[in-house]
């Protein structure tokens, strides 16, 4: 097995420190590769780990054994001309703006590998995935997390609702509030999200495999008071929805209440409608397929960020206790509630 020459006095620890300290990306990769080899890994496994050819890693080892650290310093090479012509870049630019499957590439998203496959398929040219990613940046593309666009949503209905709500807000009496209502779940198991970790380590989140155990709740965001009202339930139905409406009224005595929620079946039932009349809560239904228009959605996302992202709770009771603490903290964070829990209403400042 190919090893580092000990005469240069470098160890896995010193090479790793050099990899962390250097600003040169190519040197950083070479230091890291040699640090892994110094720790006992084979050239083949290191090449596979850093996505390089075995021959390339072997050449780095030989250069180091002959010249030491100086042998790892990359020699300057003049920039290589792109393999694609201006016209081919334009074709690639148009293709990247559509899902890969529309171009015959059977994958869900564009990556260096899938772009390289497209270039091979359409232009008959072979490029490395690293080069393909460089082409993406050259064309002005950046990697972003997408948001769903609900194609069944009716934008005219959404704008009409926003204008109607604007009228309600402008004509309401003094002691009145708008209450945005929604339902959510927080699972006992971790909801995986990106996390910071050392470059050479795998990102790992411990899990106790709790299955489908979860906390279910109703939440109401009260604007402009910045107040949060919740109710934990086993399931969402008309009876529990009626209980929540009564709790909202009990928490806001003497207020004129306009409640806004979606068109879930338990929001439309006879029991729910009757309770709305009994509690004197004026209910407004959002247009269909319009979750971003509900300010309570933002609070649910906030709760998941605090209680679910990369966290697996030991028991459901500990999750519930932490949820209660998070809800209680809202009393001291009214300004944050008002800034974070905002409805997207197409430019209308309705609340």
Topology:
Blueprint: H1 12-21, H2 25-38, H3 43-50, H4 54-67, H5 86-96, H6 112-123, H7 129-138, H8 155-171, E1 176-187, E2 214-223, E3 227-233, H9 238-251, E4 256-261, H10 265-268, H11 270-278, E5 281-285, H12 295-307, H13 316-329, H14 334-340
Parallel strand pairs: 1-4, 4-5
Antiparallel strand pairs: 1-2, 2-3
Helix pairs in contact: 1-2, 2-3, 3-4, 6-7, 9-11
3D structure, described in words:
With 351 residues, the protein is an alpha/beta fold. The protein has three domains: 6-72, no CATH class; 86-138, no CATH class; 155-340, Ribonuclease H-like superfamily/Ribonuclease H (Nucleotidyltransferase, domain 5, 2-Layer Sandwich), CATH 3.30.420. The chain is built from 14 helices and five strands. It has helices at residues 12-21, 25-38, 43-50, 54-67, 86-96, 112-123, 129-138, 155-171, 238-251, 265-268, 270-278, 295-307, 316-329, 334-340, and strands spanning 176-187, 214-223, 227-233, 256-261, 281-285. A five-stranded mixed sheet has the order 3-2-1-4-5, with helices on both faces. Strand 2 (214-223) and strand 3 form a beta hairpin. Helix 9 runs parallel beside helix 11. The longest helix is centred in the middle third of the chain and has 17 residues, at 155-171. The protein is elongated. The model is unreliable at 346-351 (pLDDT under 50).
Comma- or semicolon-separated keywords:
single chain, 351 residues, alpha/beta, Nucleotidyltransferase, domain 5, 3 domains, five-stranded mixed β-sheet, 14 helices, disordered C terminus
């Amino acid at each position: 097995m190919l090893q580092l020459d000990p005469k240069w006095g470098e160890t896995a620890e010193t090479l790793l420190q050099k990899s962390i300290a250097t600003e040169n990306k190519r040197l950083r990769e070479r230091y890291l590769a040699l640090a892994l080899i110094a720790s006992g890994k084979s050239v083949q496994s290191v090449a596979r780990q850093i996505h390089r050819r075995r021959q390339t890693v072997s050449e780095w080892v030989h250069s180091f054994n002959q010249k030491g650290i100086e042998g790892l310093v990359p020699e300057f090479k003049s920039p290589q001309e792109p393999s694609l012509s201006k016209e081919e870049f334009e074709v690639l630019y148009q293709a990247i703006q559509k899902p890969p499957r529309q171009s015959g590439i059977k994958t869900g998203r564009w990556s260096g590998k899938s772009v390289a496959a497209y270039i091979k398929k359409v232009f008959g040219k072979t490029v490395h995935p690293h080069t393909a990613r460089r082409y993406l940046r050259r064309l002005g593309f950046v990697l972003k997390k997408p948001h769903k666009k609900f194609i069944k949503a009716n934008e005219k209905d959404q704008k009409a609702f926003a204008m109607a709500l604007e009228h309600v807000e402008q004509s309401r009496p003094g002691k009145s509030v708008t209450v945005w209502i929604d339902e959510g779940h927080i699972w006992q198991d971790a909801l995986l999200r990106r996390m910071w970790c050392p470059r050479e380590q795998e990102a790992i989140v411990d899990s106790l495999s709790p299955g489908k155990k979860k906390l279910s709740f109703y939440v109401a965001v009260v604007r402009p008071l910045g107040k949060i009202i919740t109710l934990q339930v086993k399931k969402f139905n008309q009876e529990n929805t009626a209980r929540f409406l009564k709790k909202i009224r009990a928490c806001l005595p003497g207020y004129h209440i306009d409640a806004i929620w979606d068109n879930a079946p338990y929001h439309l039932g006879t029991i729910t409608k009757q309770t709305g009349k009994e509690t004197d809560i004026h209910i407004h239904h959002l247009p269909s397929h319009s979750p971003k228009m509900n300010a309570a959605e933002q609070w649910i996302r906030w709760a998941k960020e605090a209680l679910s992202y990369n966290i697996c709770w030991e028991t459901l009771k500990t999750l519930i206790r932490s949820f209660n603490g998070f809800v209680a903290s809202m009393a001291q964070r009214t300004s944050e509630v008002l800034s974070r829990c905002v409805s997207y209403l197409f430019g209308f400042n309705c609340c």
